[in-house]
Amino acid sequence: MKAEKKFRKILGTVSRFFIFFLLAAFVTTSCIMLFISALQVSIGRKFTQEEITLAAKITMVNVVLISIVMATIDHLRRKFTVERPVRRIAEATAQMMEGDFSVRVEPVSKFATDDSFQEIIACINKMAEELSGVETLRTDFIANVSHEMKTPLAVMQNYGTLLQTPDLPEEKRMEYAKAITDASRRLADMMANILKLNRLENQQIYPNLTTFDLGEQLCESLLQYESTWERKNIDIETDIAEGVHVSADAELLSLVWNNLFSNAFKFTEDGGRVTLALMADEKYATVKVSDTGCGMSAEVGAHIFEKFYQGDTSHATQGNGLGLPLVKRVVDILQGEIGVESAVGVGTTFTVKIRRTQHGLEEDR
Prior knowledge:
By secondary structure, this protein is an alpha+beta fold.
């Protein structure tokens, strides 16, 4: 393979030399013939055959020398302006194909090549950076999924073993069975959220736009948690504007409200308060979900939309860190905005702004 490549390189050099030779021979011969014709007319004398033969030999030598010089200059030009950047790019892409995304192509001197290679190198470096980020996310995702699966699987295994104990009291049997059921439900919910998030991130779910009353949807979602707020004696405050209609995907938006309400009730202690507000202008419908729970620091708030991130480990058994990333992705797909305000020991407020019409989404469809 190397011998064939070297042969082709030599053949290319020889071919370029002959091209330069023919070009130089044609240009030089034409110029000499014109010069001799003009000179004979101007001095009124014809050159002898010997003189013409001598001039032809000198011209031939000049043609060969000019061809060698031009071929050498072209070879050096190609070596520094084409072969060197191409070799760097080829070596870098070969490393990327082997899985090394930390490689970067060193930019070539502006005096040694044109801007086209600079643009290609910049694009390859950007691609390597993006691939490196994707690889890191993939590795972290696999590690996080494995870690999150270990806990419910360990619970199911341990309580399953305990259920095999002879003469186990009925009360304990029910307790262990419930622990296994809760762990399996948590595992199933995590798998369902992973699939939803994967489909959303790969744009395999396309918004099904319908016009509906957002206030009614919020009330219906909130009522699903009635047993929870009654059990924890949580006060509910609502300030919902009437007649706020939006053109959006109702099913996707229900994921947003269910996750926000679930978090609000999960982190609000007994006797606390959860507030729901809806207001609207011509462009956006704004929903605020507030609670008087434990709140979170600015450092935690900066990571809450990352997969599997759980700032409050005391509630880790009640979630899997996928709810808020799912919320963020849905809001992004619907061209909305989401923000959070929180203070430790005071509570948290999530603000979601949804476009009342989704013209851009309709065009994409």
